[in-house]
Every structure is written in structure tokens, then in C-alpha cells.
Amino acid sequence: MAESPMTITVLGAGSWGTTLAVLLAHKGYDVRLWAHRPEFAAALESDRENKRYLSGTLFPDNLHVVADLHDAVRPARIIVTAVPSQALRQTAQGFADLPLSDKIIVNVAKGIELETGKRMSEVLLETLPGLKPEQVAALYGPSHAEEVAQHQPTTVVACSPSEETALLVQEVFHTQSFRVYVNTDLVGVEIAGSVKNIIAIAAGISDGLGFGDNAKAAIITRGVAEISRLSAKLGADSLTMSGLSGIGDLVVTCLSRHSRNRAVGEQIGKGLKLDEILSEMSMVAEGVLSSKAVVKLADRLGVEMPISQAVYEMLFEDKPAPQAILDLMTRDPKPEHY
Predict the structure, then answer these.
(1) Does the annotation place 141 within a ligand binding site?
(2) 259 is in an annotated binding site
(3) pTM to 2 decimals?
(4) Which residues are listed for NADPH binding in this entry (predicted)?
């Protein structure tokens, strides 16, 4: 008798969660996609596509949409958390009463929790009783959902403190068009993959102000320096910043037309206020709230992050973008590496 396919559950039916659910279903796994709102789950199951967030990508027959969180999590060998970073704790609390000893959680949300300054893996380990570090992984990298859904070449990194877990995640997600590498530096991968969203907002602000390639290159390069300083302070491997969750994700998020964070920054640069920008968006720009969390974390750790600080001031203190840029450019001269 043929062995039944592994059951994988994706929590969160936004564009990225939907894309990964479809990718995994095409690989032959039994996939459950959980949507927070029952009426949205019903529409997804009926339409057999996500018309709101990923129109045109049809669901394979082995992808089932569910609205009950326990029904989604209970049979799964692997749980992919694709909810917004600020909603991860609440979502995890919703299934904390289930036994998880035989499961692996692969987080794909990129952010720092606002209230605690914790990385997503820390939130999971704190929220789910008995969950061990070797059961937690992250899947990060330059991977816009729109392109992955179209089977365009994409590379990401599967990261876990356990190499065995990282290798399993690599095997599960790897396809001809979705190439997965392995890393064990979870601190570095999570910090790089989260802070890059803030730098992307800065890149968008530069676009909105009408600046050119010189300014964009400066923001990306000095953004690398900021992420590297914070990562080092937290004990990350310096090589991680040169990888897919570092330089790779930073470049694509700062440059791409698909980047929600860059788009928010562009509107800020054009003089719009944050509230009116967010009111027009249907999806989450993770860098907005992460800027609050990262600035607070950097201040507590004594890490200098002037671009992140400037983004926070423009978003939440209504500092005019031209003044913020002037203040950045007229800071005391420094050596490049310090």
C-alpha cells in the first residue's frame, strides 16, 4: 500500500501563504490552508483561488481551505506560519493546547514583535509549551509571492538551529524553480529578514523625493551596516548578512515594484501621511511596525541605526522627509567601518 502524503498546514491566506500552499500542493503533499475569517475561507474553498491576494493562481485538488485552527493544525507534520508578524503570538496561542512534539513549525513572517522586541522564533518558543528550538525553522529570502506563483526562478534559505530540521525543510520546499539553501544561524536570518523592510521604506522615501541611483545605493549599503551591527550585537554569524536573507532580500525589497514596504516609503516621500497610506492598503507592510520595535531594541542594546531611526521619525513623528534626509547627510563624519 502506498504511503499517505505528508500533511502540511499553512496558517495565513495572504499572498505569500497562498503561494506556498499551492507550491506544496503541486509537490504532492496534503495541504491545508487556514484563513482567519470563516467567510474568507469559504470563498477561497468555493472559488478555488485567492481572488483577493493572488488572483489567477488556481488551487490543486489536494489543497483544502479550513477556518478552524485546531482542524488545520492537528493533522499536520509541518506547520507554516504565514500570518503577519504582529499577529503571530495570538495565532500561536490559538493552538497552544494541542500536542506539538511531532511537529515542525516553519515561520515565513518577517518582523520583530512590537511589544517585546522578540524575533518570531522567540515568540513561538515562548507561546507554545514544550516546543523545542530544533522544531522551529524560518524560510526567508528574496521571494515575492507574485513571481514564485508564476514559477519564476527564486532562491531562499531554510534556517533552523538544527541542521537536520533545516535539511528537512529544504527537501519539502525545494523545486526546479524554488531553490532552497540551508543555514543554522537563526538569529542572523531573522534579524536580516526583518530589518530589511525598514531599509526598504527608506529606499521608497528616496524614490518619492525624486532622488536617483546614488541615493538608493547609499541607503542599501548603509542599511547593510545597520543590520550587521544589530545582528552582531545579538550574536549572529557575520556571513549571514551576505546571504539570501541579508543582501538578497534587502536588494529585492528596496528595488522591486512588488515591495509593499518600498511603496509605503514612496508615498511618505511624496508627502502623504502614514494613516492615509495604510487605509488604502489591503496587505501588511511589515516594516512599519517593525521600525518601532527595532528602534526600541537598538536603543536598549546601544546599537546605532540612524536610517532606521529616521524612518521611525518620518512614520510616527511626522518628521518631514527632506529634513530627515538632511539630518542623515549632515551627521558627524565617520569611518566607513566602525
Answers:
(1) yes
(2) yes
(3) 0.95
(4) 15-16, 36-37, 53, 110, 145, 260, 284, 286
CATH architecture label of 187-330: Orthogonal Bundle (1.10)
Provide CATH 1.10.1040.10 ranges for the chain.
187-330
The C-alpha torsion from 206 through 208 and 212 to 215, rounded to 10°, is: 0
Catalytic residue among 196, 292, 296, 334: 196
123-151 pLDDT, tens digit each: 999 999 999 999 999 999 999 999 999 99
Domain(s) labelled CATH 3.40.50.720 in the chain stretch across: 7-184
Q: How far apart are CA 137 and CA 77, in angstroms?
A: 13
Q: What is the pLDDT of residues 251-289, one digit of tens each?
A: 999 999 889 999 999 999 999 999 999 988 877 788 899
Residue 149 annotated as lining a ligand binding site: no
Whole-number Å distance between alpha carbons of 170 and 175: 10
Residue in this structure with the C-alpha cell 525589497, named with its chain if needed: 253
The pLDDT tens digits of the residues spanning 194-224 come to 999 999 999 999 999 999 999 999 999 999 9
End-to-end alpha carbon distance in the chain:
62
Answer yes or no: 196 catalytic.
yes
